[in-house]
Description:
This protein is an alpha/beta fold. The chain contains 17 helices and 18 strands.
Amino acid sequence: xxxxxFDKVWDKHVVRxxxxxxxxxxxxRQYIHEVTSPVAFADLRTRGLKIYxxxxxxxxxxxxxxxxxxxxxxxxxxSKDQVDxxxxxxxxxxVEYFALENPNHxxxxxxxxxxxxxxxxxxxxCGDSHTSTHGAFGAVAFGIGTSEVEMVFASQCILQPKPKRxxxxxxxxPGKGVGAKDIVxxxxxxxxxxxxTGHFIEFAGEAIRGLSMExxxxxxxxxxECGARGGIIAPxxxxxxxxxxxxxxxxxxxxxKAVARWKELYTDADAKFDTEYTxxxxxxxxxxxxxxxxxxxxxxTGRIPAGSDPKALAYMxxxxxxxxxxxxxxxxFVGSCTxxxxxxxxxxxxxxxxxxxxxxxxxxxxxxxKMVEKQAYEEGLVDILKAAGFEFRQPGCSAxxxxxxxxxPAGKYSVSTSNRxxxxxxxxxxRTLLAGPxxxxxxxxxxxxxxxxxxxxx
Length: 458
């Protein structure tokens, strides 16, 4: 019997299989940030251990860094302590560290692909659940806990059970105004926020193959929001074109050898999956969430379904049968490891060009990296945004999880391109409506939930 793409990558990295099905899995790259690494470093010191392979670890602060005035010293407090601790630990243990002022700084799941550190066939971990993003390259990538961060520090291996395999096929070409975020929110709304539990998802089909690498990263980023361990997409010419010439990607003859290996990374025709789903893009329109988990999503022209969780609706201030169109919005957030790439800001800027931000909207447009920030200025996107009344900030996780000053006030509504709409995720009492950049742009210029297809004549 043939193998799935996931099996091919996983099996190649198994050092030893233990009783009970757990595997000692070799890890090719570990990304770290300021929040989940301090205890792991402290335990290494206590045990008198060194990092086994520091050259396979990349560090950057992102979760709680400010997104304005990054040239100024950080204010005293927990955030500064965590950032300073990460910097000191990286010096002490010989780990490459991209500080705030470094041109490679940014959200950890954005800078890895940008630099060519994330590649097909790798195993990748980080003390962050959205490590699944890197699966867009044909890598097995997943989030881990602090004790496991330390395990990889000390041994470059991790102890993991092998997940079941799921394939989600999306057929057809997306309609006007439908992007990667809409596709994945549609999937999660259909299989639920727990539908992928225990599985690793391979995304396949014409709609997935037609996505850019930025779009594929969005899809894999959100794979864990249906409970899956991670998501993966087979590498192809789109993948190779994205990686070619990047600073840390293979060069010259090594590049040709790497591509030859990567072309073998696909699911065999006779491979079997534990679970399969198939969707059609004809059924997908721009999406928005109405509840307190990413599975509570709907097409933007629909109505909140009967039988929705009453506790979630009470928190959001909504009722069954309500249309989402016309709902008041206070904040718009574009950014995060889900939608903080240059493609997202191109889409948003092109949509709002020649228009003005609604007076009732506070908008935080936060690039995912210094590279995205630089591109946005060079391409004139920032000029478009400023002319429309928007402020373009500096890289960081920002209002995705509100660990810095970018918090949505209690009771306020935020249309957010991030990945989670849990109670209080964007600030205590904040009410989050997840959407893609186009739906965010439509809300930003109208002040209410709006169908971007009609507003922008798509």
